[in-house]
Amino acid sequence: MADFIFEPPAVPGIPVQGERGLYPVGRIFCVGRNYAAHAAEMGVEVDREAPFYFTKSPSAYLASGSTLPYPPGTANFHYEMELALAIGAEAFRVSAEAAQGAIYAYGCALDMTRRDLQLKAREKQRPWDLGKDVEGSAVFAEMTKAAEVAPLGPQRIHLEVNEEVKQDATLDQLIHSVPEIVADLSKFYHLRPGDLILTGTPAGVGPVEPGDRITGGIEGLAPIELTIGDPE
User: What fold is seen in the domain 13-229?
Assistant: First the structure.
């Protein structure tokens, strides 16, 4: 086994209900504009032909219940509540019908976003990395195995800031369904265990400040929680 000049970072892991081991965090794929009302509030149109994606690094992972320092470089830090799925089998060029078999677990997630930097990049037709791939910005709750989750559709997805409801929708409002997302993404990547996909956020996104407490949930899944701390 090769020696490293510097110690490589540890692999973060997400708890899974009923399992002693953790789900390893590898690649984090995120689907943009997958709820029509959210696309409208962002002033853009929905591409209904196919999903589009951006990514977050494993270093963006943060466990539910943590405190996240308000990040540098932004004055407009936003929450986005999302359904996340974890891949549990290799999937490459699979059909939507076969894609369901590659899903290991589901969970609640937050895609925290430096909105001002994202919009600035969008205006200049540049990548969104500074706005989206933020340390601690991919927050995951404990996951539930897919076999134990009811068929997706009518489940409520919601988020509160300081107990005030900000986002409230249902999963059947997803433009591109979970199997469609997995199948489409598998056209471009060899999906494998460790890959996580955030499926998009409903309308109602907005800013948070130090001291704010974010809570959220999806019916049938473990809830999520995050506190915004002071800037470092």
Answer: Fumarylacetoacetate hydrolase; domain 2 (3.90.850)
